Each structure stands twice: as structure tokens, then as C-alpha cells.
Amino acid sequence: MPRGQVVGLLGPNGGGKTTLLRSIVGVQIIAGGTVAVLGEPAGSPSLRSRVGYVTQEASVYADLTVRANLNYFAALVGAPRADVDRVIEVVDLGAEVDSRVDRLSGGQRSRVSLGAALVGSPELLILDEPTVALDPVLRRDLWALFRRLAEEGTTLLVSSHVMDEATRCDRLLLLREGRLLADDSPDGLLARTGAANAEEAFFALIEAEAAA
């Protein structure tokens, strides 16, 4: 994955997206093969401050405030306290900074979880279904944030089963039943399949695989 790109990992639920992401982060026991991340074996201690990971469920402490959560995660990766203020502004939680997480909306909790992954400015950001169950406005705002992070040099790997999010990525990986069906740009994928959109392209690849 080239630096500063937004790479979409797309496919239906149960296709292996989360397993692949967990393998990259280094928290998944794998049956065979190797995974290299930023030149190191996945899960190496040296990667802990270089890779940010956002799980499907908000992975923060519900009984702590927004700031207390971010201070804790900043301490884990050795980030300065000043970085917490930067992240609070990035994820737009200034008005909720002293609120306990269990009193926030689902979308706000997702942003706290994203903020926890952003402290320390990781080089690689792994996002597992970050927009699932969010309203369209918040989804739009998060994708704008992802694009801004990429422009600043962060590499993002974003999983989704929402095919219309494919157009927001620089590169697409289509995964089904643990197998990679395609690795291409959005335009390249459409040209390759003759489809009008990513969803049609995905079905065309499935049909071509079945025919083969």
C-alpha cells in the first residue's frame, strides 16, 4: 500500500475483511504465511505507535470522559498531552470533551474511538467498518476526514460492505469468502468489468469466477 492512499477493503459480511485487518494489526492468530507491516512483522512492539486501529465497535472506556480516554491512549503510545487537543479538534468533539462516553450518541462514540487511534499520528490507520450504522451526514464528514488524513501522509485501509463508498477510495480490494477477487483503482475496476458502479462490478467478478 503506497503512503498517503485510501485503500478500500470491500466485500459482503463474513467474507474475511475483519480477519485480514486483525492479521495486519497483529492480533489475529493466522494459520500460515506472513504479514509485513511498515517493514516489520505484524504485531511487533515497534509498530504499536505507528499503526492505529479502529474496531467495528467503539473500543473506548464508557465510564471515562472523552478527554480521559484520549489521555489514556496517548500515554500508551507515548504521545504528548498536547496531541490530545489536536485530535479532539480533528474529530470535532470539543463540545463533548468533558462528557462521559456512555452519555454520547453512537456516532460520537465512534469518533472517540477514531480519536483514540489518531493520537500519536500513526503512519497507518486500519479502520474496520467505521461508517456502519452512521447517518449519511456523519458518513460524509468521516470520509472527508479520511481524505484529509491521506493528504497529510497517513495511509488508510478502510473496510466496508457498502459498495457506494468505493468511489471515495484511491484503490479497491474486493474480498469474498477469504479470496481477493480484485485489486484495482475504482476507474480501473469499472473499465475491467464494464460495470456502471462498484456493486455491479463486484457481481460481475463473482459471476466470472463462477463461470471459470
**Number of helical regions:** 7
Global geometry: globular
Low-confidence stretches: none
For the biggest β-sheet, the strand order reads 4-5-6-1-7-8
Structural class of the helices, strands and pairings? alpha/beta
User: Over all CA atoms, what is the radius of gyration?
Assistant: 18 Å
Helix content: 25-40%
Strand content: 15-25%
Which sequence of SSEs, written as H and E, runs from N to C?
EHEEEHHHEHEEEHH
Average pLDDT across residues? 91
Number of E strands: 8
The largest β sheet comes out as: 6 strands, mixed
The end-to-end distance, rounded to whole angstroms, is 29 Å
Annotation keywords:
212 residues; alpha/beta; six-stranded mixed β-sheet; two-stranded antiparallel ribbon; 7 helices; 39% helix
Describe this structure in words.
With 212 residues, the protein is of the alpha/beta class. The chain is built from seven helices and eight strands; from the N terminus they run E-H-E-E-E-H-H-H-E-H-E-E-E-H-H. It has helices spanning 17-25, 66-77, 81-90, 106-118, 136-151, 186-193, 198-211, and strands at 6-10, 36-37, 40-41, 51-54, 124-128, 155-160, 171-176, 179-184. The protein has a six-stranded mixed β-sheet with strand order 4-5-6-1-7-8, sandwiched between helices. A two-stranded antiparallel sheet has the order 2-3. Helix 3 packs across helix 4. It starts with 5 loop residues before the first strand and ends with a helix. The mean pLDDT is 91.
